[in-house]
């Protein structure tokens, strides 16, 4: 299925993850094509698809990309009884966050576009088997034509201006002050520590160590509008 790819699929798939992580605005465009509900995989290795989906869901929920340790913490909980799988997934994540990989952006983006087109055409052909049986070749042709229409420059539901604004906002969030919880594992779960304008609720069964430390301090910072008394 990858005869048109200049980079073999096994090499391209980790590049896709790394390139998307390093380029948030490009990731937002690609996500519309490659994110799945988990029941299918556009990647030949479904664990790459799982990491891609997880990265996208975190982005959708928090409007910012997750850090390496955040993804690891999520997968650590999911595969806590499978050391081999955790080791493999962590190797994928480490490659995804490797800052030393250099690309020819235009070349890589063209390869990713071809990768998406081939997957979409394959999917369209599979879904169009019913059209073939009914002799409805026009419907099949429409599916295939739609599959090859992959354009990273067009509006994919988020305008280019919004993407640029979101990228700037992401940088602000990533550079904001974070209050250290004092516990490295807890920090990794909540993306580095306590963030401004966020409420954290710790829940557990009775005796589940919710009050394991009595000296935990919560730092609250706020401003009050002197005219209205509103908390800003």
Residue share in β-strands: under 5%
Unreliable spans are 154-163
CATH arch. level architecture of one domain: Orthogonal Bundle
Instruction: Let me know the CATH homologous superfamily of one domain.
Output: DNAb Helicase, Chain A
Oligomer: single chain
- Rg on CA atoms, Å: 22 Å
* Topology pattern, helix = H, strand = E: HHHHHHHHHH
The level 1 CATH classification of one domain is Mainly Alpha
Q: Could you give the distance between the termini?
A: 55 Å
- What shape does the CA trace take? elongated
Structural write-up:
The chain is mainly alpha-helical and 232 residues long. It has a domain at 9-148: Orthogonal Bundle (DNAb Helicase, Chain A). It has 10 helices and no strands. Helix 1 packs across helix 2 (24-34), helix 1 crosses helix 6 (105-127) and helix 4 (68-78) runs antiparallel to helix 5. The longest helix is centred in the middle third of the chain and has 23 residues, at 105-127. Residues 154-163 have low confidence and may be disordered.
Provide a concise account of the structure shown.
This protein is mainly alpha-helical.
Topology at a glance:
Blueprint: H1 9-22, H2 24-34, H3 46-62, H4 68-78, H5 83-96, H6 105-127, H7 129-134, H8 137-148, H9 160-175, H10 184-189
């Amino acid at each position: 299925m990858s005869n048109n790819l200049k980079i073999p699929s096994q090499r391209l798939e980790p590049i896709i993850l790394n390139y998307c992580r390093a380029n948030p605005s490009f990731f937002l465009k690609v996500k519309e094509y490659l994110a799945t509900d988990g029941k299918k995989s556009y990647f030949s290795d479904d664990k790459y698809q799982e990491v891609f989906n997880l990265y996208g869901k975190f982005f959708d929920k928090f409007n910012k990309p997750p850090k390496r340790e955040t993804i690891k913490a999520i997968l650590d909980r999911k595969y806590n009884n499978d050391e081999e799988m955790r080791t493999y997934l962590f190797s994928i994540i480490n490659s995804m966050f490797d800052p030393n990989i250099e690309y020819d952006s235009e070349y890589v983006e063209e390869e990713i576009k071809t990768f998406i087109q081939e997957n979409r055409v394959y999917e369209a052909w599979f879904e169009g088997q019913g059209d073939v049986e009914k002799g409805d070749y026009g419907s099949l042709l429409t599916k295939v034509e739609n599959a090859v229409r992959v354009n990273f420059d067009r509006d994919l539901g988020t305008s280019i201006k919004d993407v640029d604004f979101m990228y700037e906002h992401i940088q602000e969030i990533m550079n904001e002050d974070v209050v250290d919880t004092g516990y490295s594992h807890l920090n990794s779960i909540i993306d580095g520590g306590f963030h401004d304008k966020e409420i954290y609720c710790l829940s557990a069964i009775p005796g589940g160590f919710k009050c394991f430390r009595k000296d935990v301090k919560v730092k609250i910072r706020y401003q009050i509008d002197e005219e209205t008394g509103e908390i800003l």
